[in-house]
């Protein structure tokens, strides 16, 4: 019998895709022109509906993904919290970045016209659900929530790893939107690899959002930007998330560092985009052997799908055979009732930074519970290792609690390099687990993402699906409500009066 995780996803027919894209196109004007506070109520309704059906959804996701109930319970809560956070952003209105420049004939650069600028929805968004988060990065996840919040209809391409969870979630989203007065076509789900490609090529789609592999994401990115009319494609692709341990941190809390690293790189069978895949240690410590001991005690955990398990097996064998690599712990595969293998961790020791740099494959993501350790003997070696890292979501540094002047100097050199390579710098914690907050940056230079200036987590994710428009000397009756002189929606805006004075108008509560 074929298991759920091994099923071939059904392909939508041409006519079904056409109907969904037509409906999304028709819904664009209505959904995008609804007052932000009205869309906020719809997002809150989705969150309420997900919470009400949590038991059913979690049970289905446990069956399909093999992830533990506790993990999925927290993930579903995160999903509804994300929706409510975007609802709060809509009620506040600051995300629109409304700016008014009054006519000023005496402006320093000459006669300044009346200019009014705001952000408007980009249009229908195609969202590709992720394999490793059946809720938070899937049907009702952050990409869907931020696109809907921006005023964009969403066409969701479901992931085949959790089809029934996706179907149930999609029905909840559709029903909640309809009950809130959203137009038909505001949200739809499609299935099938070819359907996902066909939709991306379609001129009715205005942007794409993706979380997954480098190979899959890059192929879709190339399609998006090579269309007759290119569109933005916000892909989160691959990341090794290097972690650095200073000699001060090793002396102070070596055991804690070892335990924390093992817990982080094996969390969820290592199937997190923020898994720390490379650990850089000062030369000559006992940490590699201690990490190996701890990793050897980790119980088998099921991979998400057979395809992911197969690719992980191939990549681990490739890395283990690299020159100079010592296998400290060789993971094993175990049968699982689902038919998808469960695995134990693998720990590889590259020895020197030179060995690490001589095998570029060691600095590429391996999606699963495998980690590579290298030891540095000088600041220059550590800098060389970080300089060789391509774009990554995170860089982690474990330092002494009260670093001496020498360590402060070293960190002062290290941090700018780490910031140039990543979107988030983590100190004295581990990168797995991404806080959903306004200040979060879940992104980074390629191949971590295809859009380095944006985030896919946190309220700033809404910016991806908005575009600015300015109105110059427009009569009030032709302006959108958000830019009317009377400000009927009570939105916050910055006004520059004649004479260069600046005023901030707070939103009406």
What topology emerges from the helices and strands here?
Elements: H1 14-33, H2 36-52, H3 54-65, H4 69-92, E1 98-101, E2 115-121, E3 125-128, H5 142-150, E4 154-157, H6 163-179, E5 187-190, H7 193-201, E6 207-211, H8 214-226, E7 233-236, E8 243-245, H9 247-265, E9 278-282, H10 287-296, E10 301-302, H11 306-320, E11 326-329, E12 333-334, E13 342-343, E14 346-352, H12 353-358, E15 370-376, H13 379-387, E16 392-398, H14 405-421, E17 422-427, E18 466-472, E19 493-496, E20 502-505
Features:
single chain; 509 residues; alpha/beta; Aldehyde Dehydrogenase, Chain A, domain 1; Aldehyde Dehydrogenase, Chain A, domain 2; 2 domains; 7-stranded mixed β-sheet; 5-stranded mixed β-sheet; 18% strand; globular; disordered N terminus
Low-confidence stretches: 1-7
The whole-number mean of residue pLDDT values reads 95
With strands numbered from the N-terminus, the spatial order across the biggest sheet is 11-14-15-9-8-16-17
CATH topology term of the largest domain:
Aldehyde Dehydrogenase, Chain A, domain 1
CA radius of gyration: 25 Å
Structural overview:
The chain is of the alpha/beta class and 509 residues long. It folds into two domains: 20-237 and 453-466, 3-Layer(aba) Sandwich (Aldehyde Dehydrogenase, Chain A, domain 1), CATH 3.40.605; 243-427, Aldehyde Dehydrogenase, Chain A, domain 2 (3-Layer(aba) Sandwich). 39% of the residues lie in helices and 18% in strands. The protein is built from 14 helices and 20 strands. It has helices spanning 14-33, 36-52, 54-65, 69-92, 142-150, 163-179, 193-201, 214-226, 247-265, 287-296, 306-320, 353-358, 379-387, 405-421, and strands at 98-101, 115-121, 125-128, 154-157, 187-190, 207-211, 233-236, 243-245, 278-282, 301-302, 326-329, 333-334, 342-343, 346-352, 370-376, 392-398, 422-427, 466-472, 493-496, 502-505. The strands form four sheets. The protein has a seven-stranded mixed sheet. It has a five-stranded mixed sheet with strand order 18-2-1-19-20, with no helix packed on it. Helix 2 crosses helix 6 (163-179). The longest helix has 24 residues, at 69-92. Residues 486-509 are annotated as: Disordered. GO terms for molecular function: aldehyde dehydrogenase (NADP+) activity. It comes from Halosaccharopolyspora lacisalsi. This is NADP-dependent aldehyde dehydrogenase.
């Amino acid at each position: 019998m074929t298991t759920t995780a091994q099923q071939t996803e059904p392909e939508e027919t041409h006519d079904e895709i056409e109907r969904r894209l037509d409906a999304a196109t028709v819904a664009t004007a209505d959904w995008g022109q609804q007052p932000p506070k009205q869309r906020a109520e719809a997002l809150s309704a989705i969150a309420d509906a997900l919470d009400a059906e949590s038991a059913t959804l979690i049970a289905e996701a446990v069956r399909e993904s093999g992830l533990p109930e506790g993990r999925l319970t927290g993930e579903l809560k995160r999903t509804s919290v994300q929706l409510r956070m975007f609802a709060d952003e809509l009620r506040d209105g600051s995300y629109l970045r409304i700016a008014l420049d009054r006519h000023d004939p005496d402006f320093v650069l000459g006669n300044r016209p009346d200019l009014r600028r705001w952000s408007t929805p980009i249009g229908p968004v195609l969202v590709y659900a992720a394999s490793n988060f059946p809720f938070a990065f899937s049907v009702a996840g952050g990409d869907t929530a931020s696109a809907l919040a921006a005023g964009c209809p969403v066409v969701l391409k479901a992931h085949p790893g959790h089809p029934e969870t996706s179907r149930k979630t999609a029905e909840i989203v559709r029903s909640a939107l309809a009950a809130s007065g959203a137009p038909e076509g505001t949200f739809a789900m499609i299935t099938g690899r070819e359907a996902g490609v066909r939709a991306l090529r379609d001129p009715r789609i205005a942007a794409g959002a993706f979380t997954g592999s480098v190979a899959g994401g890059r192929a879709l990115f190339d399609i998006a930007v090579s269309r007759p009319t290119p569109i933005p494609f916000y892909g989160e692709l691959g990341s090794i998330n290097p972690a650095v341990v200073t000699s001060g941190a090793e002396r102070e809390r070596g055991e804690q560092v070892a335990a924390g690293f093992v817990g982080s790189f094996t969390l969820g069978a290592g199937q997190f985009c923020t898994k720390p895949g490379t650990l850089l240690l000062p030369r000559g410590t006992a940490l590699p052997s201690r990490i190996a001991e701890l990793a050897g005690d980790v119980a088998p955990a099921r991979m998400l799908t057979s395809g992911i398990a197969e690719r992980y097996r191939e990549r681990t064998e490739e890395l283990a055979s690299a020159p100079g690599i010592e296998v400290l712990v060789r993971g094993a595969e175990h049968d699982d009732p689902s038919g998808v293998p469960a695995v134990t961790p693998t720990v590889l020791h590259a020895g020197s930074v030179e060995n690490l740099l001589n095998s570029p494959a060691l600095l590429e993501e391996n999606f699963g519970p495998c980690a590579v350790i290298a030891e540095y003997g000088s600041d220059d070696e550590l800098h060389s290792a970080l300089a060789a890292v391509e774009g990554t979501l995170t860089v982690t540094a474990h330092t002494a609690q009260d670093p001496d002047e020498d360590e402060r100097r070293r960190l002062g050199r290290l941090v700018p390099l780490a910031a140039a390579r990543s979107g988030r710098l983590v100190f004295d914690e581990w990168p797995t687990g991404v806080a959903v907050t306004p200040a979060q940056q879940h992104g980074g230079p390629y191949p971590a993402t295809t859009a380095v200036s944006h985030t896919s987590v946190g309220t700033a994710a809404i910016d991806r699906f908005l575009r600015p428009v300015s109105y110059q000397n427009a009569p009030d009756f032709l302006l959108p409500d958000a830019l009317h002189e009377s400000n009927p929606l009570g939105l916050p805006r910055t006004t520059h009066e004649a004479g260069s004075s600046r005023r901030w108008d707070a939103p009406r509560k």
